[in-house]
Amino acid sequence: MLGRQGMELRRPGLITRLSAPLRGMGQRFILISLVIAGFGFMLLGKSDAVLVDRLRTTIADVATPALEAATHPVEAFNRGLANIRGLFALRSENARLRREVARLRAWHAKAQALAAENKSFRSMMNYKGPARDSFVTARVIADGRGPFVKSVLVNAGARDGAAKGQAATAFGRLVGRVTLAGARSSRVLLLTDLNSRIPVIVADSRTRAILMGDNSPQPRLGFLPENPGLKAGQRVVTSGHGGVLPPGLPVGRIVAGEDGAYRVQPLIDFDRLEYLQIIRFKAVGAPDTDKPRRSGPT
Predict the structure, then answer these.
(1) Residue 287 and which of 9, 13, 106, 201 are 20 to 30 A apart at CA?
(2) pLDDT tens digit string along 108-142?
(3) Are 153 and 185 spatial neighbours (Cβ–Cβ below 8 Å)?
(4) Cα(154)–Cα(136) distance, integer angstroms
């Protein structure tokens, strides 16, 4: 019994030792066959290129259905994997949107309360605000921006109500002001131009300043009081001082400049300006220049 068991235990090792030379011979035979076949195809291609092209086309025709059948499971697996990834992305996006909706609902309730309080204060003080501004929409027809000039040309002029000094906005955000108004076109000087000077106010702290362009993407805040205590991210809007620009137009947010000065990141991408709104603003108490004046005694 022990002898049989020993023979059975030694039999797998014996089979492995006997099959190893055969396996090596088979691998050598396959390698030599492939090399010979390769040289044969090369010689055949030199002698008869048309026959080789036909053979290649026939092989491709035969292999195409098999390759297509093999790719279907792979494509189905990739689609399924993409769907699974999309589901995980949708779950995270849904959670983010739920948090955003909850935050906006809280702000909406707070805004309604502040609006009601503001309305009550206005009625108690008998406050009369500025009249509603009218505007004309114009299309940007030429971009004159360069290293030294930051302006655009729009297709609205004096016949449309545009005039020098009026504010130009895009989506309710300040872009610049009109510097030249012809009959059919106007030149708008952008906030970033070296000659741009806009009176602004920091909405959170009510700090007054002048937004001064210097041909950089972020204009600088000048004429600030000592130790203004400004912080990055605070909103900057037009102050309306001087009676030229309407107050409260969003301009941008404060950022820390590399030179240590307070700078403003505009809310508008000046590289994508297509349409502008020129605001026909008239300050409270300003004379009505649209009506003809009478000369002489009545």
Answers:
(1) 201
(2) 888 888 888 888 887 887 766 555 568 999 999 99
(3) yes
(4) 11
Measured between alpha carbons, how far is 249 from 224 in angstroms, rounded to an integer? 20
pLDDT of residue 18: 57
CB 238 within 8 A of CB 246: yes
Residue 19 DSSP class: H
Mean pLDDT across the stretch 91-103? 89
240 vs 197: CA distance, rounded Å: 13
Task: Report the run of H or E that residue 277 belongs to, with start and end.
Answer: strand 275-280
* pLDDT per position as a tens digit, 49-90: 666 667 667 766 666 666 666 666 767 777 777 888 888 888
Q: What sign results for the dihedral spanned by CA atoms 49, 55, 56, 58? A: positive
Q: Report the C-alpha gap between 291 and 279 in whole angstroms.
A: 19
pTM for the full predicted model? 0.56
Residue 152 in contact with residue 143, Cβ under 8 Å?
A: yes
The least confident of 48-57, 212-221, 231-240 is 48-57
CB 135 within 8 A of CB 147: no
Are the beta carbons of 274 and 139 closer than 8 angstroms? Answer: yes
- Name the helix (H) or strand (E) containing 70: helix 49-125
From CA 237, how far away is CA 218, in angstroms rounded?
15
Query: Would the CA dihedral through 264, 268, 271, 274 be positive or negative?
Result: negative
